[in-house]
Specification:
With 296 residues, the protein is of the alpha/beta class. The chain is 47% helix and 12% strand.
Amino acid sequence: MIASTITGVVPILITPFDSQGRIDVDSLQNLIDFNINSGVHGIGIANGSEIFKLNESERKLVTKIVVDHVAGRVPVIINTGAHGTALAIQYSKLAQEQGADGLMIIPPHFFPVGTKQVADYYEAIDSEITIPIFLQDIPQSPISPSLALELAKKCKNISYIKVETSPIATKVFQMVDATKDELTIFGGAGGSYFIEEMRRGAKGTMPFCSQPKEFVEVWNLFQNGDEEEAINIFNKFIVPMSRLEIQTNDLCYHLHKQFLVKLGVIKTSHVCGPTMLPDPISQSEIDEMIELMSNK
C-alpha cells in the first residue's frame, strides 16, 4: 500500500464550456487558480466535471490542461473508472502518463456484477499503474467495508476510498472502523455531510468547486478544534447551496456554473446536453441563492 498523503479539501472541478459546447481553456485555468488560491489541498476531475459526456480527445485535453496548469501546486486526482476493465485500464494508464498524482475509480455499475468481479476489476487496474487509487463507493455499486479492506491489502496502489453510499455518515464510520490505517477515508456527495464525516474519522472531502474558501475554512476550524465555528460556517454558507443542488437530477451543474459566472471565474454556464434546464421556479431559487452567496 502506498502511504496516504492526501487529506483535506479536494474539489471536483466543473468543466467550463463556451456557448458552442467547446472546452473553455481560459475559464478552466481561472477555475484552477480560484481553487488553489483558496487553499484547497488537491484538485479532482470526475463526474462533477461531466466527464461521462466527454469524448476521448476532450477527456485527454481536460486532464492535460489541469495537470499542466496546476503544475505541482497540489495533487491532481483523475476519475478513470469505466464500465469495461480494459477501458478503465486505458484511461488509468493515460492519466498516469499525463501526470496525474492519483486516480479515482468507480466500480462497474451499468450492469452490476458480483463482489469477486468488482475485486478482479480493481486488481487488474492496480497491476497496470503505479500511482495511488481512490476507490469510489457509489449507490449504484456500493463497496462494503470488508471489500475495501480486502482490496487495500491485495492492491499496492489502493490507498483511499471516497464514500458516497447512504447513510453516508454511518458508512464513513463503518469504513474507518473496518479499514483502520489501511485506507484514508474521504467523503463525497458534494460535501453535504462534511461535519458528520470528520466527526467519524474522514480525512477529507471532495465537494463541488464553487465554494473552496468556505470548505477550507470549515476544514481548518475543525482540525484546530473549533467545531462550533466550523458548524456555523458550514450551516451558513454550504448547507443552503447543498439543499438546492440536490433537488433535481443535474441541477447542480447549472447552479455551480451560474454561481462561478457571477463570481467572474468562468465565462458561460453552458451544461452539456442532454440536460434538464431549470424550471422557472428552480431558476428563481438559483438566482436568489447566487445573489445571497455572492454578497455575503
